[in-house]
C-alpha cells in the first residue's frame, strides 16, 4: 500500500454539532496548500485527516513541509498503510522504518486500536511486534520510558498504518473558522507575529499598511509585502491594502501639538482601518501593540486610540515582552526581514516627548479643526491593493 501523511486534529475534535464545519474548512485549507504539489485525496476519519497521493508525481516532501503550517493540526507524520494483520504490520515496520530501526539503540512500540474488531488488544499488539523487532535487530533494546525511536501502529477502519515519531503540527483552529479581521502590518517585529497569532485562532486576515512616501522608501514598502508573503504559508493568500498616509501626517505636523502627534496619527489609522474592514467584510482590527512597550501603548493611550472605532480591537501581544515576540518571529520566519533597516510611517515626525496619559476630551478638541472625514476619504480612495501568495 501507499505512503500517506497522517494529520492529528487538535481542539476542533472537542466541537459539538458543528464539528463537521471545522473539519470541512480544514480539508479545504489543506487541499489549497497541496494543489501545486500534485493530486492528493484528503479525507477525515476517526479524528485523523489523511493526505493520500494519487500518483507518483506528487511531491511528498513538499507536501509534508506544507502540512506543518496548517492551523488545526497538532501532529503530523508520514506513514505506510498495510493490511490489518500483525504480520503485515511487522513486515511494514521492517521495510518502511528499517533505516531508523538500524540506527537506533533503544525503541518501543505503541499501538492504537481504533478498529475494536481487531483480535488483539493494543498492548498485546505492541508486545508482539516489539518482541519480533527486538529479535530481528541486535542493536536495539526496549526502553518504554525514553526511547530513541517509537514505532507507532494504528489499526483503523480499513487499513493499518505504521509510522515513527510524529512531529508537532501548527495547532490552533483552521483559518477561516473564526471570521475575518483586518491586521495593521508595519515593517516591525510585532505586527507579523500578531497576525500569525490571530490566524492560529482561525481568523482569516486582510492586511493594511500605511505608506508615507517620500518619508519612507519604496524598499520599506517592499519589506512589508515580503513580510506578508512570509505569512502566507500559515495564513493563505493575503491582500495588502497599501494606504497613502503622507498627506495626513503632514497635516498633523502642520496643525497639531507635537506631543500628541503619534496619538492623532494612530487614531487616523484606526478610522481608515475601520473603513477598509467594512469594505472587506472584516469584523475586527488586529494590532501588534504590547502594553507599556512605547509611549503610544500605555493603557490611557490605547484607550484613546481605540475610541474612534466601534470594531473590536484584538491585541494578541498585549501581555508579551519583546523577547517573547522575537521568539515567535524567529519560529515563523519573519524576524530577519523585520529587522531590515527600513523605517515605517510610525517613525516619521516622532515627537521628542510624546503624551503618555492623554485625555480623550483633549485629543478630540485638537482634532476638531481638522477635516477628518475628507482626509480619511482621500486615503481610502488612494489605496493600492496588492495580493501576495498563491
From TrEMBL:
Pfam families: ThiI (PF02568), ThiI_fer (PF22025), THUMP (PF02926). Its EC number is 2.8.1.4. Keywords: ATP-binding, Cytoplasm, Nucleotide-binding, RNA-binding, Thiamine biosynthesis, Transferase, tRNA-binding. It comes from the Bacteria. Its main location: cytoplasm. CDD domains: PPase_ThiI, THUMP_ThiI. InterPro entries: Rossmann-like_a/b/a_fold, ThiI_AANH, ThiI_fer, ThiI_N, THUMP_dom, THUMP_ThiI, tRNA_STrfase, tRNA_sulfurtransferase_ThiI. It is an enzyme of class 2 (transferase). It catalyses: [ThiI sulfur-carrier protein]-S-sulfanyl-L-cysteine + a uridine in tRNA + 2 reduced [2Fe-2S]-[ferredoxin] + ATP + H(+) = [ThiI sulfur-carrier protein]-L-cysteine + a 4-thiouridine in tRNA + 2 oxidized [2Fe-2S]-[ferredoxin] + AMP + diphosphate; [ThiS sulfur-carrier protein]-C-terminal Gly-Gly-AMP + S-sulfanyl-L-cysteinyl-[cysteine desulfurase] + AH2 = [ThiS sulfur-carrier protein]-C-terminal-Gly-aminoethanethioate + L-cysteinyl-[cysteine desulfurase] + A + AMP + 2 H(+). It is found in: Cytoplasm. GO terms for cellular component: cytosol. Belongs to the ThiI family. Catalyzes the ATP-dependent transfer of a sulfur to tRNA to produce 4-thiouridine in position 8 of tRNAs, which functions as a near-UV photosensor. Also catalyzes the transfer of sulfur to the sulfur carrier protein ThiS, forming ThiS-thiocarboxylate. This is a step in the synthesis of thiazole, in the thiamine biosynthesis pathway. The sulfur is donated as persulfide by IscS. This is Probable tRNA sulfurtransferase.
Amino acid at each position: 500500500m501507499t505512503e500517506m501523511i497522517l494529520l492529528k486534529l487538535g481542539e476542533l475534535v472537542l466541537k459539538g454539532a458543528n464539528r463537521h464545519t471545522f473539519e470541512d474548512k480544514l480539508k479545504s485549507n489543506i487541499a489549497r496548500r497541496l494543489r501545486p504539489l500534485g493530486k492528493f485525496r484528503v479525507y477525515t476519519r476517526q479524528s485523523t485527516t489523511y493526505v493520500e497521493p494519487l500518483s507518483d508525481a506528487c511531491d511528498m516532501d513538499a507536501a509534508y513541509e506544507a502540512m506543518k503550517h496548517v492551523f488545526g493540526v497538532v501532529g503530523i507524520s508520514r506513514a505506510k498503510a498495510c493490511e490489518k494483520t500483525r504480520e503485515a504490520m511487522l513486515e511494514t515496520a521492517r521495510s518502511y522504518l528499517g533505516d531508523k530501526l538500524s540506527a537506533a539503540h533503544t525503541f518501543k512500540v505503541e499501538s492504537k486500536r481504533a478498529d475494536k474488531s481487531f483480535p488483539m488488544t493494543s498492548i498485546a499488539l505492541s508486545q508482539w511486534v516489539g518482541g519480533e523487532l527486538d529479535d530481528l535487530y541486535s542493536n536495539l533494546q526496549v526502553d518504554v520510558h525514553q526511547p530513541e525511536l517509537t514505532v507507532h501502529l494504528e489499526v483503523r477502519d480499513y487499513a493499518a498504518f505504521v509510522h515513527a515519531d510524529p512531529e508537532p503540527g501548527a495547532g490552533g483552529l483552521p483559518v477561516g473558522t473564526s471570521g475575518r479581521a483586518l491586521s495593521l502590518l508595519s515593517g516591525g517585529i510585532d505586527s507579523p507575529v500578531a497576525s500569525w497569532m490571530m490566524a492560529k485562532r482561525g481568523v482569516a486576515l486582510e492586511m493594511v499598511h500605511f505608506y508615507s512616501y517620500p518619508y519612507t522608501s519604496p524598499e520599506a514598502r517592499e519589506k512589508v509585502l515580503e513580510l506578508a508573503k512570509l505569512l502566507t504559508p500559515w495564513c493563505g493568500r493575503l491582500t495588502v491594502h497599501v494606504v497613502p498616509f503622507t498627506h495626513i501626517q503632514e497635516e498633523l505636523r502642520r496643525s497639531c501639538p507635537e506631543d500628541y502627534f503619534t496619538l492623532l496619527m494612530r487614531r487616523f489609522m484606526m478610522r481608515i482601518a475601520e473603513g477598509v474592514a467594512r469594505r472587506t467584510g472584516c469584523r475586527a482590527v488586529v494590532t501588534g501593540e504590547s502594553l507599556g512597550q512605547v509611549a503610544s501603548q500605555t493603557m490611557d493611550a490605547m484607550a484613546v486610540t481605540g475610541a474612534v472605532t466601534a470594531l473590536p480591537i484584538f491585541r494578541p501581544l498585549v501581555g508579551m515582552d519583546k523577547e517573547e515576540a522575537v521568539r515567535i518571529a524567529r519560529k515563523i520566519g519573519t524576524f530577519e526581514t523585520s529587522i531590515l533597516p527600513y523605517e515605517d510611517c510610525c517613525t516619521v515626525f516622532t515627537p521628542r516627548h510624546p503624551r503618555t496619559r492623554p485625555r480623550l476630551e483633549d485629543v478630540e478638541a485638537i482634532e476638531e479643526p481638522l477635516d477628518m472625514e475628507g482626509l480619511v476619504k482621500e486615503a481610502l480612495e488612494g489605496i493600492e491593493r496588492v495580493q501576495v501568495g498563491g
